[in-house]
Every structure is written in structure tokens, then in C-alpha cells.
Inverse folding.
């Protein structure tokens, strides 16, 4: 079989971007499935080491600037199912996944954290993960931070972000500006998000890697020591790919779904974790929002990891979405959005979920159980966040609770429940992980400490699935550091 792709990527701009109509039979040394933060760094470092790598992505290739950030168009263009995905349970949790080259890095806020040392300690003790100390991981975090230009925003933070910081300061709560993976050309500019299509994907292509977008992998089978990958391309139809080694990097939902479709099921998709999040919209007497506000940069960590507060994307479409439980106010978004912003209370969460595939359904079934302690933490977070916003001068607060009235003064906080009512919280998350936790405890870990799927010498996972529990912080820094560590281990470095 010809191990080279029959059609070279078509040039688009300065980089080669896509492959049109691949042959029905392809071959490579290493196939990387999924081009998000885990897959992009994995494919890049393998290609730069001289390996023959094919990077397969279900979604299309779009430039970062192909549409307005955080717009309705972006949701349609770059999100799976337009962002309309949900984990089922008594308390449903909406979640989002990137479905494009670069994955979630193309649509998220770019806030960056290292894995907290206390979390690493838990993973080492409870899952027996090797080489996971702060010292072990420091070189990988440092390298990723250099490659992604992780830094703090120059100049003044957005006004809505400063409102969060102001309220926390007046209450004596710890508030911090979170670094971002942005490149700033000058001290006054908003900067450019250093997503995978701005960083590791171009490096991968320059190193000779081959990219196959718009291609959904249905399943893989071990075939005489190699892997036979069955995929679907909109132009070519069925595509079969032979590979010596496979790295699956499709995210905490799609990775276990692919493995289960492939008959690999032990401890796969049984322990999904996430950061349940509840939002509020605050209206202020003065302007706090603008068309160029971008990503707010402050988070309140006084009660972390149990609770974290932050300011969310607050474009008019996102404000309207956050006001689903307040239809009357949603009608005024077009006029009042400059005085409005969305804030969130995120919990570490002790709940668990599952990922299962169903016959004749393209998407997996995701279930998530929100236990009573998490419902209490969410209610506590909602109350504390609202208290903070009133302290910073909010005129009205609209909680993300079905049937909840607007809050207009601090005394109205008494109306908020002590425990989130079952089924009435408008919950969401953008952080999912732990569906294939790494470690040497074979009773609960389907992969070893370096991402190799147990029972196979040439099958690996490199994405958020590996994180053993909820880290309590934005997970992309953790995903990339572990992916870098694991691929260098694979290369014998």
C-alpha cells in the first residue's frame, strides 16, 4: 500500500490546510485522531521527530479569524451540533465541544492554569500515576507556556472583569488575573489567541505531517499487529487507513465513544467528570461591556477548589442564551447589553457520568449524576457570586434558575435556595475529563501512567480523558503538559 497520501494538502494562505478527496486506502506509521490541544501537540512532536504522521480531524479546517469570536456563526461553524449537546440526568448539564481543526482551542477563552500540586498528589495516591510530581511536570508546563506565549494581559482589564475583582476585594476574597495563551504585538492590543491553528498545526505541517480534516473515524481494529481505521469522508465516502500506532485525542466524550465502538470497553467511559457551572447575568448602572471586550481575565479563588467565580463571554448572543430563564429581560439585550455581563460559579464537582454508544446513533449517550453535595455547592456559589456582584454595584442580577425572579438588592439573596432544586438549574460546563483515567491501578485505570491503553502496545490516549479527577481549574494547560510528557516518553526521550 502507498504510505503517502495520494493528494497533497491544498495551499491556503501560508500553510497547507486540507486534503480533498483522499483515496479509499491510506497508510501511515502513526495516526493521530483528533486535532485539539492534546492531538495537535502530539502530532507536532512526532512529526518533528521524523515520524510519518497522519492527523485525522472530524471537523473542517477554518482559520481562527474565519468568523467573529464568540458569535452565533462561530457556534454553527466550529462547535459540535452547534453547541447543543447535553449530559442527561435529573439535573441536565449542557456542554460544548469543538469540532474543527484545533478543537476546543479554537473556541475557548484561552485562560491558563497549571495542574494544582494538591491535585497531582491525589492522582498519585489514588490512581498510582507515575512521574507526576510538580518537579516532573515543570519542564512540560514551561515548554507549553513558551510555545503558546502564556502571559498576562497588558494594559487595563475589561470593565466587566474589573467589576468581579472589585467586589471580591471589598469582601476580602482572593481574586487573581489569570494568564492567557495570547500573543500581544503591543501593550495596548487585545492580542491573538494562540490556538492550535496558530501554533502546533502549522509546525506539524512544516515538519511534513499530513492533515486529513472532515473525516470521522468510526472504529478501529487490530489487524496483524497494525491498526485498521475505518473512517468516513464527505467526498470519498468510506476511507480505510492502516497505521502502525494510533493516538486517540478526541476529547473526554468522543475518545471513549470511539474505543467502545471499537470493542474496547473495560473501564472506558465509566468515570466522566466535569466542572458543573451555573451562570448569572448582572446589569449595572454604568457601561461594563463593549464590542471589543474580549475575554475577561479575573477569577475569584477564595473558596477554590470547591468554588471558583469568573466573568464569562458577554456578547449579545451569549447574554441572550444566559437569560433563557428570564425571557422578559432577554428582549432588552440588544438595547442594554453594554451595561450587562455574564458571570459564573463553577464547582470542582464530585459527581460522575458515563459515555455509552447506542446502535444506529451517531452521537454517544452521555449521562451525569449531580449528587446532593454538588447541588449545595452550586447554590452556595450562586449566593456568594450574587453577593459579590451587588458589592461591586450591580443594579439587578438574573440567576440561571428556572422560575427564579430577578434580584435587585442584597436582601433578595434570601430568595435563593440552600440546595439547587432538582431539574431547575440551567447548568453548563466547558470542562470535561476523566473518562479514561491514567495510572497503574488496573481496577479503575484503562491506560497506564503514560497514556498507553492496557492490553495494547501501540494504542495511546492523549487528551482530557486521561485526567484522573476534576482539576478545579481550566484544564488545557494540564492536557498539553501531559500530552507532551507522554509523547516524549513514547519517543524515548
Amino acid at each position: 500500500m502507498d504510505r503517502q497520501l495520494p493528494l497533497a494538502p491544498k495551499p491556503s494562505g501560508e500553510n497547507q490546510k486540507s486534503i480533498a478527496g483522499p483515496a479509499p486506502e491510506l497508510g501511515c506509521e502513526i495516526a493521530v485522531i483528533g486535532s485539539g490541544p492534546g492531538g495537535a501537540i502530539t502530532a507536532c512532536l512526532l512529526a518533528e521527530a521524523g515520524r510519518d504522521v497522519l492527523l485525522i480531524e472530524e471537523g473542517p479546517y477554518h482559520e481562527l479569524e474565519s468568523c467573529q469570536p464568540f458569535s452565533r456563526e462561530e457556534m454553527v461553524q466550529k462547535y459540535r451540533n452547534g453547541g447543543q449537546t447535553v449530559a442527561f440526568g435529573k439535573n441536565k448539564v449542557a456542554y460544548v465541544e469543538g469540532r474543527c481543526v484545533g478543537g476546543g482551542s479554537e473556541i475557548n477563552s484561552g485562560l491558563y492554569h497549571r495542574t494544582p500540586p494538591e491535585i497531582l498528589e491525589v492522582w498519585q495516591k489514588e490512581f498510582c500515576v507515575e512521574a507526576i510530581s510538580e518537579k516532573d511536570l515543570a519542564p512540560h508546563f514551561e515548554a507549553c507556556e513558551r510555545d503558546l506565549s502564556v502571559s498576562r494581559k497588558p494594559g487595563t482589564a475589561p470593565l466587566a472583569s474589573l467589576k468581579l475583582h472589585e467586589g471580591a476585594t471589598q469582601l476580602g476574597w482572593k481574586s487573581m488575573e489569570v494568564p492567557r495563551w495570547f500573543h500581544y504585538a503591543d501593550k495596548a492590543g487585545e492580542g491573538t489567541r494562540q490556538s492550535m491553528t496558530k501554533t502546533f498545526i502549522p509546525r506539524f505541517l512544516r515538519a511534513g505531517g499530513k492533515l486529513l480534516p472532515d473525516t470521522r473515524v468510526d472504529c478501529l481494529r487490530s489487524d496483524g499487529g497494525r491498526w485498521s481505521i475505518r473512517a468516513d469522508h464527505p467526498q470519498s465516502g468510506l476511507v480505510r487507513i492502516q497505521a502502525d500506532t494510533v493516538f486517540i485525542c478526541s476529547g473526554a466524550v468522543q475518545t471513549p465513544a470511539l474505543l467502545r465502538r471499537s470493542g474496547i470497553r473495560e473501564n472506558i467511559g465509566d468515570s466522566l467528570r466535569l466542572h458543573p457551572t451555573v451562570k448569572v447575568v448582572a446589569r449595572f448602572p454604568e457601561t461594563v461591556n463593549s464590542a471589543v471586550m474580549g475575554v475577561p481575565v479575573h477569577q475569584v479563588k477564595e473558596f477554590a477548589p470547591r468554588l471558583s467565580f469568573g466573568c464569562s463571554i458577554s456578547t449579545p448572543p451569549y447574554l441572550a442564551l444566559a437569560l433563557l430563564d428570564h425571557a422578559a429581560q432577554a428582549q432588552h439585550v440588544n438595547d442594554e447589553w453594554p451595561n450587562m455581563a455574564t458571570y459564573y460559579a463553577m464547582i470542582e464537582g464530585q459527581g460522575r457520568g458515563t459515555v455509552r454508544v447506542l446502535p444506529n446513533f451517531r452521537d454517544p449517550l452521555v449521562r451525569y449524576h449531580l449528587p446532593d453535595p454538588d447541588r449545595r455547592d452550586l447554590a452556595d456559589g450562586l449566593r456568594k457570586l450574587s453577593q459579590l456582584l451587588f458589592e461591586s454595584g450591580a443594579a439587578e442580577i438574573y440567576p440561571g434558575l428556572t422560575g427564579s425572579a430577578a434580584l435587585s438588592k442584597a436582601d433578595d439573596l434570601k430568595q435563593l435556595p440552600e440546595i439547587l432544586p432538582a431539574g431547575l438549574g440551567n447548568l453548563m460546563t466547558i470542562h470535561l475529563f476523566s473518562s479514561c483515567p491514567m495510572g497503574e491501578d488496573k481496577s479503575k485505570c484503562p491506560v497506564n501512567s503514560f497514556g498507553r491503553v492496557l492490553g495494547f502496545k501501540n494504542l495511546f490516549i492523549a487528551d482530557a480523558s486521561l485526567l484522573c479527577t476534576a482539576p478545579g481549574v481550566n484544564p488545557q494547560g494540564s492536557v498539553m503538559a501531559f500530552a507532551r510528557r507522554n509523547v516524549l516518553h513514547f519517543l524515548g526521550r
